[in-house]
UniProtKB/TrEMBL annotation, chain A:
This is ABC transporter permease. One of its GO terms (cellular component) is plasma membrane. One of its GO terms (molecular function) is dipeptide transmembrane transporter activity. Belongs to the binding-protein-dependent transport system permease family. The keyword Cell membrane applies. Residues 113-343 form the ABC transmembrane type-1 domain. The lineage of its organism: Bacteria, Pseudomonadati, Pseudomonadota, Alphaproteobacteria, Acetobacterales. It comes from Lichenicoccus roseus. The keyword Oxidoreductase does not apply.
Automatic annotation (TrEMBL), chain B:
This is ABC transporter ATP-binding protein. GO terms for molecular function: ATP binding; ATP hydrolysis activity. Gene3D superfamilies: P-loop containing nucleotide triphosphate hydrolases. GO terms for biological process: transmembrane transport. Pfam families: ABC_tran. Belongs to the ABC transporter superfamily. InterPro entries: AAA+_ATPase (IPR003593), ABC_transp_ATP-bind (IPR050319), ABC_transporter-like_ATP-bd (IPR003439), ABC_transporter-like_CS (IPR017871), P-loop_NTPase (IPR027417). CDD domains: ABC_NikE_OppD_transporters. The keyword ATP-binding applies. It comes from Lichenicoccus roseus.
Length: 352, 550
């Protein structure tokens, strides 16, 4: 990844501390990646069947109106010019107008993205904690109760559809037991959502000191987060178990034991050594959930991004779909940036 | 006075309690203060199991079925979990084989040493780090302050072994248990590491158990020796007496194998000086990337080999000997220079043109197990090269495989076995049979005797010698085991860092080495005959009363 540069540049590059080199080398890749994403979304729109102007105006439009809109949208220009204009619009935060909601796509996304992000962020944290935690318990207590239970769970988790788990939870915990709050959105309807600071209701209500908003929004998160976690922690657990067990039996861990290091230290050592595959899996899962949480969002009437995207597909709402694809791509790009940086930070053997 | 370690009638079993497999039987010995005890045995004798039983860390379902292990009079079995943890690393430190695998790959070596110290003697992190750096300097690491910040993958095998020794010494334990600690290291590094370990131990008054399969090590460093076989201690005596006259036939055979002082390589029939292989100015560079200059793995090397001659390439790891062998067989493409085989230039040949020559040039690879496809039976493995000779019928192939197995002195029943079912010596023989299957003119033996038990090593040397005389084989013999060079090679080329340092007839080189590097190599040998002089050297700081009787 080191650029081939003249001697002094290389020397000052080498003089940087390793973490700085890792971050700089990886961040330098962002602009070309971003350009690629924009190019793909642009081409995607070009590939869509039908004339965007006609699509926007509907079938009853007069030819004159279509022509003037084509001119206004720049569709009568060459492809290169159109791409430059497209880039210019995006830089100004203009992703077009949703045909279905008639709002600017950017506004729709800003409203809905935090809902999904809040849901999947908490779900990810819980998934990793539970997945990794169970894996460690299973490996340490091999042949014990934890080992057998996790094996059972690992088998079941792969076979559980998320909507089914969600419905079961609603049925038992809300309908029968009445412990959980209703599966209708992110916050009780009689409460006003907290002012937007981060977009996460839980954080915003804490920051503004609104206790009732916090309990309500946190309560509403419990079931959907639990659903996503139950479905996905199994995969993380199995993967971690494989990586962790391999390390836990390795010669250097046996040597650490022979040196008298305490058990907690040995587990920490093994975990640190098994981090790379865990980081990769978690990063992949996080990017995947952005769109894949749609069934859970639907069941809990969450009003998130996945629902928005599905709606856009159903209604042939191309600007909205394009906006979603771009947002998802950028999100995945950022997640992978973090993944790559973490990956290289935890493994000193990777040369930068 | 109580011994520092006392083992009484120790028995260890593995497997289900219904049908246990007993691995140690009735093992008893005492380790006195400031004593160095050698435990010698071949693979499978139970040496490692004994080491792990002593620290209470038997692998898998292993368990102590009989007897007691006492430290300063306290039985291991009576200790609590916590006490045992304090014991490990605090009272008895284990140094294992292959140090690079014993270090945490994602922690700095200084941190790892300090971690052990702080576990046993809680102290501020900075102070622990300072002590770790100081100790690294004492175990012979140059620039210890900088090296302490290195990660294990940045160290050579010898340096990693020193770090592991530092980890063992940092808590000032009473006993050090070295389980084949120098296996796989270069002889020169092995001597340095052992000298260091023994000197520091004598200085600090630490008792050492050296577990090894190398009687040379025992002869040079130990006060007493225990011979283990099949989970029992066969003989336990002071080293001097043992070397003079062992008690059991088994010890006798071990000593005889270790002594196997060359019958020097047989003289060739003085025929016409017919050069089979001529290597001129061979060059092999490895690009390391970035702006660093390429590594000159083989740097302007020229030598030639006559028909029926065995030439040894000798040097430490990293000297380029294996690279030369691989360049000759075009497993690596040489960067420059010329290689002529039987008059034909092969250095620039395309693989398609070189392929017919492969039948005539073969290689026996270094790691027998790694070089054999684990999913193929011996029959498949040995008959694979026969494809180079053109079509054979099934029965012809089978017959040829049996001939080859007989040639390498293996039973034909092994034909149906898979590599993992064979011993290391048998795997080596299969590797040799594969190389000889095409009746080649020229064979490269890459480290044929390393990491083998003494007696197996002697057998392999005998086998190669008999093949040499029967087949008139021309061979290049790549090794750092000088002992086998004497028995096998007519001529020697000594390599250091890709360059030829010295060359000549084997006897001449051994008798009067001209270059300092060659002398260092020779001095690193630990033949059991010279033990007295070296023992004096190693024991300079020894306690004068280090000899105890059992």
């Amino acid at each position: 990844m080191t650029p081939k540069l003249a001697g002094p540049v290389v020397r000052s590059w080498r003089a940087l501390p390793r973490p700085a080199r890792i971050v700089l080398a990886r961040v330098a890749l962002i602009p070309p990646q971003l350009f690629g994403v924009l190019l793909v979304t642009f081409v995607l729109v070009r590939l869509l069947p039908g004339d965007p102007a006609l699509l926007l105006l509907g079938n009853m439009a007069t030819p004159e109106a279509v022509a003037s809109l084509r001119q206004k949208l720049g569709l009568d220009q060459g492809v290169a010019v159109q791409f430059v204009r497209y880039l210019g619009r995006i830089l100004h935060g203009d992703l077009g107008t949703s045909i279905f909601t008639s709002h600017p796509v950017v506004q729709d996304l800003i409203e809905r993205a935090p809902a999904t992000l809040e849901l999947i962020t908490y779900a990810m944290i819980l998934t990793i904690v539970i997945g990794v935690g169970l894996a460690i318990l299973a490996v340490i207590g091999r042949g014990g109760v934890a080992d057998h239970l996790t094996r059972l769970y690992g088998m079941a988790a792969g076979a559980l559809p998320d909507f089914w788990v969600g419905l079961l939870m609603i049925y038992f915990l809300f309908h029968i037991a009445g412990w959980a709050p209703a599966p209708f959105g992110r916050i009780d309807t009689y409460l006003t959502p907290p002012p937007t600071i981060t977009g996460f209701y839980t954080l915003d209500s804490l920051l503004t000191g609104n206790w009732s908003d916090f309990t309500s929004s946190a309560g509403r998160l419990v079931l959907p987060v639990a659903t996503i976690t139950i479905v996905n922690a199994g995969g993380v657990m199995k993967m971690t178990q494989t990586a962790f067990a391999g390390i836990y039996d390795s010669p250097f861990i046996r040597h650490a034991r022979a040196c008298g290091l305490p058990q907690c230290r040995i587990v920490a050592m093994s975990l640190k050594n098994s981090l790379p595959p865990i980081i990769t899996t978690a990063g992949f899962l996080f990017g995947f959930l952005l769109g894949a949480a749609v069934l859970v969002e639907t069941i809990f009437a969450w009003g998130g991004l996945g629902q928005y995207a599905v709606q856009a597909v159903i209604n042939s709402d191309y600007p909205a779909l394009q906006g979603f694809v771009m947002l998802a791509a950028v999100f995945v790009l950022l997640v992978y940036l973090v993944v790559d940086v973490l990956y290289e930070l935890v493994d000193p053997r990777i040369r930068i | 006075m109580t011994a520092t370690l006392e083992v009484e009638r120790l028995g260890v079993s593995f497997g289900p309690s219904g049908a246990p497999r007993q691995v140690l039987h009735d093992v008893s010995f005492r380790l006195e203060h400031n004593e160095i005890l050698g435990i010698v045995g071949e693979t499978g004798a139970g040496k490692s199991v004994l080491a792990h039983a002593l620290v209470g860390l038997l692998p898998g379902d292993g368990r102590v079925t009989d007897g007691v292990v006492r430290f300063e009079g306290r039985a291991l079995a009576d200790m609590s979990q916590r006490e045992r943890q304090r014991l490990r690393g605090g009272t008895i430190s284990l140094i294992g084989t292959n140090a690079k695998a014993l270090l945490d790959p994602v922690a700095r070596v200084g941190t790892q040493i300090a971690r052990v110290l702080r576990t046993h003697r809680p102290c501020p992190a900075r102070q622990a780090w300072r002590q770790a750096v100081e100790l690294l300097g004492q175990v012979g690491i140059v620039d210890p302050a900088a090296r302490a910040r290195a990660y294990p993958h940045e160290l050579s095998g010898g340096m990693a072994q020193r770090v592991v020794i530092a980890m063992a010494l940092i808590t000032r334990p009473g006993i050090i248990l070295a389980d084949d600690a120098t296996l796989g290291l270069d002889a020169t590094v092995q001597v340095q590491v052992l000298d260091l370990l023994v000197q520091r131990s004598r200085m600090l008054g630490v008792s050492v158990i050296l577990i090894t399969h190398d009687l040379g090590i025992v002869a040079h460093y130990c006060d007493r020796v225990a011979i283990m076989r099949a989970g029992r201690i066969e003989e336990l005596r002071p080293v001097q007496g043992f070397l003079g006259r062992p008690d059991t036939p088994y010890s006798e055979s071990l000593l005889a194998a270790a002594r196997a002082r060359p019958v020097p390589a047989e003289q060739r029939h003085a025929g016409k000086a017919d050069k089979l292989l001529v290597v001129e100015n061979l060059l092999k560079l490895f690009q390391v990337g970035g702006t660093q200059p390429p590594v000159r793995a083989v740097d302007d090397v020229s030598f030639s080999l006559e028909r029926g001659e065995t030439l040894a390439l000798v040097g430490e790891s990293g000297s380029g000997k294996t690279t030369i062998g691989q360049c000759l067989l075009r497993l690596l493409a040489p960067t420059g220079g010329s290689v002529r085989f039987d008059g034909q230039e092969i250095a620039g040949l395309s693989e398609a043109h070189f392929r017919p020559l492969r039948r005539r040039m073969q290689m026996v690879f270094q790691e027998p197990y790694v070089a054999l496809n684990p999913r193929w039976s011996v029959l498949d493995l040995v008959s694979e090269p026969l494809a180079l000779l053109g079509h054979h019928s099934r029965s012809q192939r089978l017959q040829r495989v049996e001939e080859l197995l007989e040639m390498v002195q293996l039973s034909r029943d092994l034909a149906r076995c898979y590599p993992h079912e064979l011993t290391a010596g048998e795997q080596k023989r299969i590797g040799i049979a594969r190389a000889l299957a095409t009746e080649p003119d020229f064979v490269v033996f890459d480290e044929p005797t390393t990491a083998l038990d003494i007696r197996v090593r002697a057998q392999i040397i005998d086998l190669i010698r008999s093949l040499q005389s029967r087949m008139g084989l021309s061979a290049l013999f790549i090794t750092h085991d000088l002992n086998s060079v004497r028995s096998l090679a007519h001529n020697v080329v000594v390599l250091n860092r890709g360059r030829i340092v010295e060359r000549g007839e084997t006897e001449a080189i051994f008798a009067s080495p001209q270059q300092r590097y060659t002398r260092t190599l020779l001095a690193a040998e630990l033949p059991i005959e010279w033990s007295a002089s070296r023992r004096a050297g190693a024991a300079t700081v020894a306690n004068p009363v280090s000899e105890h009787s059992a």
